[in-house]
């Protein structure tokens, strides 16, 4: 097997901006692209391999064909032959709705789906104007929560953060959250498209309709625990891995490289994904396959990969994630 790049799935949204297409160096016209689904096995939105011998196959077909060789033997069994992660770039020109995602147990019971635990890495903050919301700032009950939705005060109960490039937020299923205007984000999440929309600022679409809210469904999905700080704190370093998140669904590190680095995945029974935010590099695997990677691109290395040599073109910054 060889390193896999996929054709991006661009999603225009009511809140989307105009940054994703130039960031990804794409030659296309599409307005208000709020999301680029980089690697997806969500039914109906399966990523398609861009080049090489498997070009044209979608990720569902790839997992079916290559099984543990692609995703790892334990992952293939654990996730019943489904690819477990969804990778996105998100460009918010306006605030996204306040929302929450159910955990595995609730999502399986209600939707026959995995839940959604996710993380955000802030790439851009629109010159310092961006903010986001993560977690409750005060203790409320489910009934108080529903009342605050009804009287448009729910934002008063949420922690609101001004964000800088490099900020990281881990969002376990059940944590109420919203990406705010000006955020440009890399998102890593479980393969799930189950979202409960809590509050949408009474916005209307071009036809004058408001979007559906899921107040009752979300009431049982929210984790009402209050924490002092929902930001993930880490110390940036150059030319060595810095772990950001380690949870049952993914482990993610950031690399900020100015010199060659060799990665050893011999003991890892998983695929590895690189998501590039800045600069460019070339990556060569133990079989001699070489792939270029630049800002705006993501690449999937199959579980058969033993080692990778990463050579920056001056400087490169990317996220590494695996299960």
Automatic annotation (TrEMBL):
The active site is at 197. It comes from the Bacteria. Signal peptide: none annotated. Binds 1 zinc ion per subunit. One of its GO terms (biological process) is carbohydrate metabolic process. The keyword Signal does not apply. The lineage of its organism: Bacteria, Pseudomonadati, Bacteroidota, Bacteroidia, Bacteroidales. This is Phosphohexomutase. It comes from Phocaeicola coprocola. Zn(2+) binds at residues 101, 118, 177. Its cofactor is Zn(2+). Residues 6-113 form the Phosphomannose isomerase type I catalytic domain. The keyword Acetylation does not apply. Residues 244-315 form the Mannose-6-phosphate isomerase cupin domain. Keywords: Metal-binding, Zinc. Pfam families: MPI_cupin_dom, PMI_typeI_cat. InterPro entries: Carb_Metab_Reg_Kinase/Isom (IPR051804), Man6P_isomerase_Firm_short (IPR014628), MPI_cupin_dom (IPR049071), PMI_typeI_cat (IPR046457), RmlC-like_jellyroll (IPR014710), RmlC_Cupin_sf (IPR011051). Gene3D superfamilies: Jelly Rolls (2.60.120.10). GO terms for molecular function: mannose-6-phosphate isomerase activity; zinc ion binding.
């Amino acid at each position: 097997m060889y390193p896999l790049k996929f054709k991006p799935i661009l999603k225009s949204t009511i809140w989307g901006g105009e940054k994703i297409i130039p960031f990804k160096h794409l030659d296309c016209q599409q307005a208000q692209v709020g999301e680029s689904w980089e690697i997806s096995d969500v039914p109906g939105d399966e990523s398609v391999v861009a080049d090489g011998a498997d070009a044209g196959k979608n990720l569902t077909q790839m997992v079916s064909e290559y099984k543990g060789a692609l995703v790892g033997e334990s992952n293939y069994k654990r996730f019943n032959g489904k690819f477990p992660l969804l990778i996105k770039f998100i460009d918010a020109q306006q605030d996204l709705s306040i929302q929450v995602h159910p955990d595995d147990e609730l999502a399986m019971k209600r939707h026959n789906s995995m839940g959604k635990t996710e993380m955000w890495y802030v790439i851009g903050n629109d010159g310092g104007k961006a903010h986001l919301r993560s977690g409750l700032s005060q203790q409320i009950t489910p009934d108080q929560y529903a009342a605050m939705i009804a009287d448009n005060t729910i934002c008063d109960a949420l922690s609101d953060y001004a964000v800088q490039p490099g900020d990281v937020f881990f969002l376990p299923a059940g944590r109420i959250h919203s990406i705010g205007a000006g955020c440009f984000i890399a998102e890593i999440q479980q393969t799930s498209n189950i979202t409960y929309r809590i509050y949408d600022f009474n916005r209307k679409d071009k036809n004058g309709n408001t979007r559906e809210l899921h107040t009752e469904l979300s009431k049982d999905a929210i984790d009402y625990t209050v924490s002092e700080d929902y930001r993930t704190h880490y110390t940036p370093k150059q030319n060595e891995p810095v772990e950001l998140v380690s949870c049952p669904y993914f482990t993610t590190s950031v690399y900020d490289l100015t010199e060659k680095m060799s990665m050893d995945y011999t003991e890892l029974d998983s695929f590895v994904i690189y998501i590039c935010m800045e600069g460019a590099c070339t990556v060569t695997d133990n079989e001699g396959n070489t792939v270029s990677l630049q800002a705006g691109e993501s690449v999937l290395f199959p579980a058969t990969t033993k080692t990778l040599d990463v050579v920056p073109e001056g400087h490169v910054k990317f996220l590494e994630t695996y299960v």
